[in-house]
Amino acid sequence: MALYDPGPDGPRGFEFQRDLRDHDDPAAWQPPVYCVVTGDHDVHYGGILAVTWQASRCTMLFTEQAAAALNLPGTELILQLRLTEEQSATATTGLEPVLSFGAPDLVPALTGFD
């Protein structure tokens, strides 16, 4: 799942990936089960504590380690998204399974994904 702005200087944003193995494969549950990739190709595995989705706004709270690895200005990142209601529903439908897969103690708190 990717959230990005195509922009005049190339895409800026994030790609969220998880292991594609089946839930029944024990190796798929080995932490960390998702990674975050920036438009600059910085990668960090795990590291998101919470994500709140509200209409056209996505707020993500990263660990300090993840924020440093991804070259973020801080641990809280707010994405102002220009999405229609249908696009917003598609985005949450794509993002939620990536971030909620894995051991419950490693899954970020997700708000607004219902």
| Largest sheet descriptor | 4 strands, antiparallel
Terminal residue distance: 17 Å
Count of DSSP-assigned helices: 2
How do the strands line up in the largest sheet?
1-2-3-4
Q: Please state the CA-atom Rg, rounded to the nearest Å.
A: 14 Å
- Overall shape: globular
**Percent helix range:** 10-25%
Q: From N to C, what is the helix and strand string? A: EEEEEEHEHE
Strand-pairing-aware structural class: alpha+beta
Low-confidence parts = none
Average pLDDT for all residues: 85
Range of strand content: 35-45%
User: How many strand elements?
Assistant: 8
Q: How would you describe this protein?
A:
The protein is of the alpha+beta class and about 110 residues long. It is about 20% helix and about 35% strand. It has 2 helices and 8 strands. It has helices spanning about 65-70, 85-100, and strands at about 1-5, 10-20, 35-40, 45, 50-55, 55-60, 75-80, 110. A 4-stranded antiparallel beta sheet has the order 1-2-3-4. Strands 7-6-5-8 form a 4-stranded mixed beta sheet. It is globular. The two termini are about 15 Å apart. The mean pLDDT is about 85.
What is this structure, in a nutshell?
The chain has helices at residues 64-69, 85-99, and strands at residues 2-5, 12-18, 34-38, 43-45, 48-54, 57-62, 76-80, 109-111.
Topology:
Blueprint: E1 2-5, E2 12-18, E3 34-38, E4 43-45, E5 48-54, E6 57-62, H1 64-69, E7 76-80, H2 85-99, E8 109-111
Parallel strand pairs: 5-8
Antiparallel strand pairs: 1-2, 2-3, 3-4, 5-6, 6-7
Notable traits:
2 helices; 114 residues; alpha+beta
